[in-house]
Design brief:
Distance between the termini: 45 Å
Number of helices: 4
Structural class: mainly alpha
Radius of gyration: 19 Å
Number of strands: 0
Oligomer: single chain
């Protein structure tokens, strides 16, 4: 019997969601932005940033595209910062817990 990893299932699910977005929104700047937003929510920040970079190359510098990419980069920075902030207290509390266990 083949062993399937949860990460592989999650990646496959993400790819299905991206394909669904492409099918529904077709090939538009809004579609690319929505995919970048989904990738951010899945903590795939580098891939989301690449999606936004490619969006600029693909669609040019029209005001609508610039507005969407600026919005996307702002969202990316904000979500990255939130992810780092969420991880920091966990690291501190787990270190404190280990110290308490060792001290006991």
């Amino acid at each position: 019997m083949q062993h399937i990893h949860l990460a592989e299932i999650s990646q496959a699910g993400l790819q299905l969601a991206i394909q669904e977005i492409k099918d529904e929104m077709f090939d538009t700047p809004e579609c690319d932005y929505t995919i970048a937003k989904l990738l951010c929510h899945c903590s795939q920040f580098e891939t989301a940033e690449r999606q936004l970079d490619e969006m600029l190359l693909k669609w040019g510098s029209s005001p609508d595209v610039i507005e969407l990419t600026d919005k996307g980069y702002s969202m990316l920075a904000s979500m990255k910062a939130s992810a780092v902030a969420e991880m920091t207290p966990t690291a501190v509390s787990s270190k404190t817990s280990r110290q308490a266990i060792v001290a006991a």
